[in-house]
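Why do we care about 3D structure at all? Because function follows from shape, and shape follows, mostly, from sequence. That is the central idea of this module. The next example makes it concrete: a single protein chain, its amino acid sequence, and then its structure expressed as tokens.
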Amino acid sequence: MAQHKVSLPAKLINGGVAGLVGVTCVFPIDLAKTRLQNQQGARVYSGMLDCLTQTVKREGYFGMYRGAAVNLTLVTPEKAIKLAANDVFRQNLSRDGQLPLWGEVLAGCGAGTCQVVVTTPMEMLKIQLQDAGRLAVQRSMAVPAPAPSLAAGPPPPGQPTPPPRPSATRITLELLRTRGLTGLYRGAGATLLRDVPFSMIYFPLFANLNALGRGERGCQGNAQERAPFLQSFVAGCAAGSVAAVAVTPLDVIKTRLQTLRKGVGEDSYRGIVDCTRRILSREGPSAFLKGAACRALVIAPLFGIAQGIYFLGVGEWVLGLLG
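And the structure:
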């Protein structure tokens, strides 16, 4: 069977649509993951369900989607770059329709490296917005409520007022003003350390799971394009959950480094090594797996949906409508 070539514009559209659909479905769990990973010392939440329950009670239903606008805006180029880059690398590394394991790993490495250009500022802004609710709860727990008074008036002098609710625009402008463009790329090294190994695990594993039971072994490039929706979805979920849990310690480090506002008694870090050392000494090895279940629950359906839509060929359909 001749291999069906998919154009780069179609790949970009497929990746973008897949990212939008996937993020919309799993964003509340991602918010819980960020808040759980940033907990140090005093525990505001006992787990994912408690975090989501408290979020709905205190911030309303849409509180679970804090930071979603940033993610939905930037996830389109991020996922488009990631999925399209992987395909381009795979096609260029293939010889006579066959791609060895080292080629699959190298293609995943290239895809993970390319996406960091968009992923780092997206994660930087998203984390500040997601974690604002946790910091507000922690402040309310630390500061006792004032005694009721018959006379309403402004808070007494010296009593701290809560900081204004952050917005993506305000955070971006503040970072550009104080730190320049590099401010948006804080934690880029940690993001690279997370995303490159993730892609090196995910894409080869997905390609092989997606090729099970179809075609000749070692010809995953053709087999992927013949995969039915359900098989692509299941393969994406399985590969995504495995890769997500494997790199969770790196995700914890990245999240801590990119969080600008810290709670009471929480550490600030000077870099990846300092962050790793302090987490290990203060919280123990188990801290590196904080949010692992949430991360698996986010990544599995996210990439399952992404790969399913990607292989449905939405991009080709859109380009066909446009003539």
